[in-house]
Design a protein that fits this description.
Elements (H helix, E strand, L loop, with lengths): L2 H36 L1 H10 L2 H16 L8 H16 L5 H19 L6 H11 L4 H15 L5 H18 L20
């Protein structure tokens, strides 16, 4: 081999090493970003899918799917109505815990639908919620599990109370209100970066 060939092989090897290092760095950053964004949902998905790569592909697909949805904040009057309905529901718990649990599930679904979340099966709803509300998706899963167990007669009053508390955590997180911008202020999405 001549000197030029050796130099080209060494240069090619260096390029391959740099490309591999860059690819590894980018994968690590993506993993860290997804882990921070999804919190415990990241670990749950890794465990469920059996590998980090499959879990990350699932989480990225969720994000893309939800980004394509038209998720909107509530108008102040709608938020007030939902809040009043929740307070009334909680006030009835002592007299009718099972009925309140059913109502809590229905009110959360109505709120999700009003915000723009599709009402597919539970797992899809929970996956969609995890994109913007990863901190409360475990509450939603726990509430749903207790509600399903209650339908089979397996939950006592304390379990129903816990389910309503879990629904409340999700409800409070989803009760996002559209805040009008002051007259001379550009909308946050329209501001330019300095």
């Amino acid at each position: 081999m001549n000197s030029d060939t050796n130099t080209m092989l060494i240069a090619l090897a260096v390029i391959v090493v740099i490309a591999l290092a860059l690819w590894t760095f980018m994968r690590k950053r993506q993993s860290e970003h997804l882990s921070q964004r999804f919190g415990p949902e990241y670990d749950r998905t890794v465990n469920e899918m059996g590998s980090r790569e499959k879990a990350e592909a699932e989480l990225l697909a969720r994000k893309k799917r939800v980004d394509d949805l038209d998720i909107v904040p509530l108008q102040p009057a709608e938020a007030q109505r939902f809040n009043q309905e929740w307070r009334a529901l909680q006030a009835r718990f002592v007299d009718n815990p099972r009925g309140v649990l059913v109502e809590a599930d229905m009110l959360v679904r109505e709120l999700m639908q009003k915000r723009g979340y599709p009402m597919g099966d539970f797992e899809r709803r929970a996956a969609d919620i995890s994109v913007h509300h990863a901190g409360v998706v475990d509450h939603y899963r726990a509430a749903h599990d207790l509600t399903e167990r209650d339908r089979r007669g397996e939950v006592d009053t304390e379990g129903m109370r816990q389910a309503v508390i879990h629904y409340r955590a999700l409800f409070a997180e989803l009760l996002e209100v559209d805040r009008p911008q002051p007259p001379n202020q550009p909308h946050p999405e329209m501001r330019t970066q300095s």
